[in-house]
Structures are given as C-alpha cells and as structure tokens.
Design a protein that fits this description.
By secondary structure, this protein is mainly alpha-helical. The protein folds into 2 domains: 27-116, no CATH class; 118-217. Helix content is 83%, strand content 0%. It has 11 helices and no strands. The longest helix has 41 residues, at 223-263.
C-alpha cells in the first residue's frame, strides 16, 4: 500500500512541470505562431487575412520587445526588413504566388530563429539547397551551361530565403566567407564553366555549405525537459532501491523466522 502511494506521488510530481510548461507561452513564442499563421494564409491564397495577421504581429512586436530578452540592433533590423517584405507580399496586386510564399517563409524563419535557441527551422531547407547546388555543380563539370544557370539560380533563390535567419544564428565571419564565394561564382559564371580554378570554387563552396549546416548544433533539450529526465531517473532509482530494500528486508525476516522455528 505504501509503495502504491509512493508511486502515485512520483507520477503527480513529474506531471506538474509538464502541465505548467504546456500552458505557458512567451510573447516571442506567440509572435512565432502569428508568423506561421500568416504563412499558412498566403499558402491558401488568403492574402487579406495574412495582411491582418502581419498588422497584428507589428502591434504585438512593439509591446513585447521590452519584456523578452534584449534584441540586438541587427536582430531588430532583420525582423523589420523581413516583416516589410512579408507585408509587401500580402498586399501586392500582381506578385506571383510562389514569390509571396518565399517572402512569408523568409519572415517565418527569421522569427523562429529569434524564438528558439536550438535547431532553427531554416536548417530544414538543407536538402533542397544542397540538391540545387549539387545539380548546378554537376552541370558545370559537364559544361552544360543552360542547366548550370538554371540550377544555380534555384540555389540562389533558396539561399536567399534562409539568409536573414542564418545571420541570426551563424557567426559573421562564416557568413562573409559564404557571401564572397557565392558572389564570385555568380559574377564569373562563364569562368566557372570553362576554368578548373573556377570549378574549384564550387568545391570550396560545397564544403562551406556542408559546414554551415553541420555546425548548427543538434537540438538541445529544453532545461525543463532535462529537469523531468533527471527527476524521472532519480525517482525510478529511488523506487527500485525502495522495492529492493523491502524485498531484502522481507527475505531477511523470513530467514530469522525460519531460524527461530528450527531452534525451537
């Protein structure tokens, strides 16, 4: 009976932080949700609804910047610029749907990079970006000018989507190195197609892109999750120790009783 009460208490004790965490959402996390909702509205061609959400975001952003962690001037500038582009996409009378989605996605990724300290969403675009780049690289090696230009343009478009959020998470020297390589290849495309030295730049950029994604740390567990894990482990150990002690004590008492009976 005592063991059951102990286990019941342990379960209640563990559920308390989970329940509190589930009901608590920071202002920045709410802004993250708004940016996601705006993106979804654009995907469904509901541009007016996306505009309303972006207006709401703007109002909320003014009220929460003083209550959350202090944003740097660069972070505020990146958020403001990406928000302006998202608003342009929502209200433009003639912008193509795919371009609207790209601008809202860029905005969404920026807010996620601000809201989370681990495994940002922009890293999820690694496969798309690397595929476009590798196709461009293969076309360059084969001397296929048309496919090289087409695939490299696709790579630039995708890279542009994650670029603002990258600037939040990636050291500035790494960004500058990537910028220099990409700018060289873009400006000297004909040289890349015909010159071995130019194609070496593709290899260098390939490695830099791999480093970009691999250097972003794997998702670290939330501190509250670590607390639950540690607490769970401690309680399990304590429970097993208690059960083992009860079993040992019971067996010891039985041996004592057996000894007394045989002595008698």
């Amino acid at each position: 009976m005592k063991l059951r009460r102990f286990l019941l208490f342990a379960m209640i004790f563990l559920l308390i932080p989970i329940s509190v965490n589930a009901q608590t959402q920071s202002p920045i996390e709410r802004l993250d949700d708004i940016s996601d909702e705006a993106l979804q509205m654009v995907k469904f061609h509901r541009y007016e609804d996306a505009k309303k959400l972006l207006d709401y975001f703007s109002n909320q952003f003014k009220t929460v910047t003083g209550t959350e962690r202090k944003l740097t001037l660069d972070e505020v500038r990146i958020i403001t610029t990406s928000h302006d582009e998202a608003m342009e996409a929502a209200v433009s009378p003639d912008m193509k749907h795919e371009e609207r989605i790209n601008k809202l996605t860029k905005f969404r990724l920026v807010i996620d990079a601000i809201a989370t300290s681990h495994q940002p969403l922009w890293t999820e675009m690694e496969d798309q970006i690397m595929m476009a780049f590798h196709q461009a690289k293969e076309a360059a090696v084969n001397g296929d000018s048309a496919h090289f230009h087409s695939n490299f343009n696709t790579f630039l478009s995708l890279y542009n989507v994650i670029y603002p959020s990258m600037k939040i998470d990636v050291p500035v020297e790494n960004i500058q190195r990537l910028d220099a390589r990409i700018k060289f290849i873009d400006e000297y495309r004909s040289q890349v197609l015909t010159d071995l030295g130019g194609q070496q730049e593709l290899d260098n950029l390939d490695q830099d892109l791999k480093n970009l994604f691999s250097n972003i740390e794997d998702d670290e567990a939330d501190p509250s999750l670590w607390w639950v894990i540690i607490s769970t482990g401690s309680i399990i150990i304590a429970t097993l120790s208690y059960v083992g002690w009860r079993k040992y004590k019971g067996e010891k008492d039985m041996r004592k009783d057996w000894s007394r009976e045989h002595k008698d």
